[in-house]
Design goal:
Blueprint: H1 8-27, E1 36-40, H2 46-66, H3 81-105, H4 113-134, H5 142-163, H6 172-200, H7 209-227, E2 229-233, E3 247-248, H8 254-262, E4 270-278, H9 280-291, H10 299-313, E5 319-322, E6 325-328, E7 333-340, E8 349-356, H11 362-377, H12 385-393, H13 398-413, H14 419-424, E9 431-435, E10 456-469, E11 475-488, H15 494-509
Parallel strand pairs: 7-9, 9-10
Antiparallel strand pairs: 1-2, 3-6, 4-11, 5-6, 7-8, 10-11
Helix pairs in contact: 2-3, 2-7, 3-4, 4-5, 5-6, 6-7, 10-11, 10-15
Length: 526
């Protein structure tokens, strides 16, 4: 931004940044704040496939040991459905989840493998109780069984700590070394205290398979921690608890966490306000752009470019609330907007989504917006991807439609709504914008939607003129464009909202400042 754009709001951001830096310095004993870091394991890494191999061998050994067997054969044999589910199906689910997440998500979201490891503790706890019942492998008392269960849980917990550091400033190296030490100690203890005594008894091979499976489990986790490459960044990285469409904000005041439960719906937490932007420079700017070949350039493009610039400096406006948690969309600005094929009573209407970025200028916004509009208007009837999705849902009988929408809301609450729906849904995004100027009326106060997660609705109306009395007694005619905003007050405080919309308003009144990308982009807090 230009120097002239510095305001009290920017001073607030600067002071907040300085306070955060001091807090980090104090927390680290006077040292410089740690960068954000996480472990990454790509498909091309040798240790990725070593971990997959150990996991596969472990499951094969487990199936061999616990599968139903002929009478007189060696092994553990399972005779009931529930035991088969606990000792074969559950571990199989763990191994499958672990290997798939490791291969396909290990590069960016290695922390997801910890879910399978934690689930495996359930099986290991059941196994410890069975060993206690049979008085096998040294598990001769409830205290020993309890100690085993706690130890398994500690190993899983330390593994999770080591791979789940992206969203906070954490010492990744220390956590990885600690987890490796404990896992190696577990391997040595398992081998020395259980496997060696079995080997000395010269038992059939099948009797060693259960313990071999545990040893292979540990080797799989050790491979992940040894091969993980540390990635560092100056802004938060993915972490457990994040959603596909946003990063969870974890450092807000406790009041913010409570407010989302007190005001649990968007329409019970909305604030509305109206304002106007003086557009003398804006009109001249629009004429210049049209003379440069941008034939349909207008106020919609300026409004979107101004809002993208405001979000690049006030990222708290790009937050949303889902599942009673506050998330940030980071640098993804998703705008939803309704368009008509023609301005008539019978003209069909659809909703388009435009994906903007912090570096966008009015010209790049013009290209992105017009591309989406032309794609929507390129058919006999407006038929966007959302319309096709809505058409499919419309085939559901009316008696089941309410349940279907409720089910979609339930999935969205837990972040499980399929990507194909969130990508096409106009109710999931940064802002919903509507233009009343083309209708020749002033902007309406539009409600927010309880479905989805859009936290802001912006409406702007037609141009108007106003005679203003100057200090010297003269009267000057000025032009304005009115806009109304409906915001979810839970995403940030009023001071932050005011600062953001002052910046937005200045950009609308003087759009020439938007011709160059911002000098720097501000990232949201942890």
């Amino acid at each position: 931004m230009e120097n002239s754009s510095e305001t009290i709001g920017e001073g607030m951001n600067k002071r907040a940044g300085e306070a955060a830096a001091k807090s980090e310095t104090a927390r680290d004993g006077g040292a410089k704040a740690l960068p954000y870091s996480m472990l990454s394991l790509s498909k091309r890494n040798f240790f990725t496939w070593a971990a997959v191999l150990f996991a596969a061998l472990s499951f094969a050994a487990r199936i061999t040991y616990y599968s139903p067997i002929r009478e007189g054969a060696e092994g553990a044999g399972i005779g009931t459905f529930w035991l088969a589910a606990l000792f074969i199906a559950l571990p199989g689910l763990c191994y499958l989840s672990f290997t798939l997440r490791l291969v396909f998500e290990g590069e960016r979201r290695l922390y997801k493998t910890s879910r399978a490891v934690l689930l495996c503790v359930v099986f290991l706890a059941a196994r410890a109780l069975c060993l206690l019942k049979e008085n096998q492998n040294g598990v001769s008392s409830g205290l020993i069984a309890a100690a085993l269960i706690v130890f398994y849980a500690v190993c899983a917990f330390l593994y999770r700590l080591a791979v789940n550091t992206g969203g906070r400033r954490r010492n990744t190296d220390f956590r990885r070394i600690l987890a490796l030490i404990v896992l190696c100690a577990a391997f040595i203890a398992e081998f020395a205290l259980v496997m060696l005594p079995l080997l000395k008894k010269a038992l059939p091979v099948a009797r060693y398979l259960a313990e071999a499976s545990i040893l292979l489990n540990i080797l799989a986790l050790v491979s992940v921690l040894l091969g993980g490459k540390k990635i560092e960044s100056e802004h938060p990285l993915p972490m457990a608890g994040d959603r596909r469409d946003g990063r969870r904000i974890r450092s807000l005041d406790p009041m913010n966490s409570v407010a989302v439960y007190i005001m649990n719906e968007r329409n019970t937490a909305n604030n509305l306000f109206a304002d106007s932007a003086e557009i003398s420079k804006t009109e001249l700017y629009i004429r210049q752009k049209r003379e440069q070949g941008l034939e349909s350039f207008g106020y919609t493009h300026i409004m979107l470019a101004a809002y993208a610039r405001a979000l690049s400096q006030r990222p708290g406006m790009n937050r949303f609330i889902s599942g009673q948690r506050i998330y940030s969309r980071e640098d993804r600005f998703e705008v939803s907007m309704a368009v008509k094929k023609d301005m008539s009573l019978e003209g069909s209407e659809t909703i388009i989504s435009i994906l903007l970025s912090p570096e966008d200028t009015p010209e790049t916004v013009y290209e992105k917006f017009n591309r989406e509009v032309e794609a929507a208007k390129g058919t006999a009837e407006l038929n966007s991807s959302f319309d096709k999705l809505a058409g499919l849902v419309n085939y559901i009988p009316g008696v089941l439609m309410k349940f279907t929408v409720w089910f979609f809301k339930l999935l969205d609450y837990f972040g499980l709504l399929p990507n194909i729906i969130t990508r096409l849904s106009p109710f999931h995004g940064s802002i919903f914008v509507t233009s009343m100027g083309s209708l020749g009326i002033r902007p309406v106060y539009h409600h927010l939607y309880n479905f989805g997660n859009i936290p802001i609705f912006l409406a702007f109306g037609m141009k108007r003129t106003e005679n203003e009395l100057q200090p010297d007694g003269s009267v000057v005619k000025k032009k304005y464009i009115d806009f109304t905003v409906d915001v979810d007050e839970r995403i940030c405080d009023g001071y932050y909202f005011a600062s953001a919309f002052k910046l937005f308003k200045r950009c609308v009144s003087d759009p020439a400042r938007l011709d160059e990308p911002p000098e720097s982009i501000v990232w949201d807090i942890e």
